[in-house]
Amino acid sequence: MDSPYTVRVSGHPQLFLDDRCVARTTNLARCVQQPVKFEGNPVIRADHPWERVHVYRPSVIYEPQLDRFRMHYTAISGPKRLATCRAESDDGFHWRKPLGDEIPFEEQPSNIRRGPAHCIRTGDPRRPYIGVFNKDFVNGRFEGRGCSVAVSEDGDRWGAALNITQTKCDTVPSIVWHEPAKRYFVYTRAQAFHPRLEGHVRITGVMSSEDFEQWTPKYAFNLVSEEEGFPYVQVHALTAHAYGDVLIGEVPIFHLEESGNNFLARCEIQLATSRDGWHWQRVAGRGVFLPHGPEDWDRWYVHSTSMTRKGDTLYFYFNGRAQKHGALRQLREQHVGIEMPGPESTIGVATLPADRFVFFELAEPNAPGMLDTPPLRFDGRDLVINALSGPMDLQVELFDVDGAVIPHQATPLEGFERACSRLVRKDDLRYRVIWTSDGAKRTLGDAPAGKPVALRFHLDQSRLYAFQVE
Phi/psi of residue 333, each to 5°? Predict the structure, then answer.
């Protein structure tokens, strides 16, 4: 009988966003890996009259069969004049905006389309693309209240929108299918009250469905504690992405600047993760994933909307502002005349190697570092690690736990000791782990069958991002 601490791992990369595969660490620090902002940002600027106030909320899908990126984004040309627009790119960095007559703007061709605020490709032939709308575009204008969902066969033409809540949902929503839970989830805004700050305080709302037709009521939860600074630190949205076994959330964090002011804030992006879609936790000590600045166009504000993948590169699209959230509103309320040189927000992109959201590295450089997993069960034969390491700067040993909860209470398996461990380069990001002794070469599949084993990673001058059993 397995220990209650035994974990069955899938063939997906096991990230270190939470402690599911971490039993114990020694002299290791868990850190957030920040993506690299494209030096040519912003990649979407205001080129047309319907974009003159804002271009924001990018939702991007990479289409492998076309080898092309496709974006929906929101443009604002004036009070209550919002439009969903379309752009496309061959490389994810340089974008074009095809104009057409589907929805003209002031009788001129435009790239305005009826499209969602956030959409994903599912791989389900019944619902190849699913999207979530704050409102729906009907007869040339946005109508309705709350949040709606819709299905598309091609990601371009969308079916009738199904309203799933009439509550306030004015921040960026996101939609995701979580395969382990066999459920759809929509994340949007919810509201709370707090005696230290007048008005509605921003928290997160979630709705879920098994069949895309019957949805739960909105449930509200808060990812920020009073210890961290709530209500003067708030979550403005939760952009969820399915990633193997887990959901990864980009979390725009508002830092309010003035006492009693619920609008003036700088905004950065942090990470959260969930294994069931309902319960979320922040990642790596609330480390910043995507900071605002240092360029003028995103000096004080970055906000998340979309992640897509091509090969081993992750693309994160975000909107940035040169001013803090609420700064222009405050000036207008004070009747201060302002002359904007361009739109209030534009869209940029940052990239990250696959699986490299967080990493473990030495906390103190001159002492050994170790990570022990709990007892693991798996079906594959090869251990693959995603690491930044020299060939001898990271070793792995196997333990036959045989009921022991912690690997150091057990004995390393013969032939799988640390001294026998070797890293064999698999690709630019990954190594295969083998063990060699007495002229024999072993892989994970040569470990005794039918028993859980634990892994111990020994780190020197290296960074460990993930492991995978193939």
Answer: -65, -25
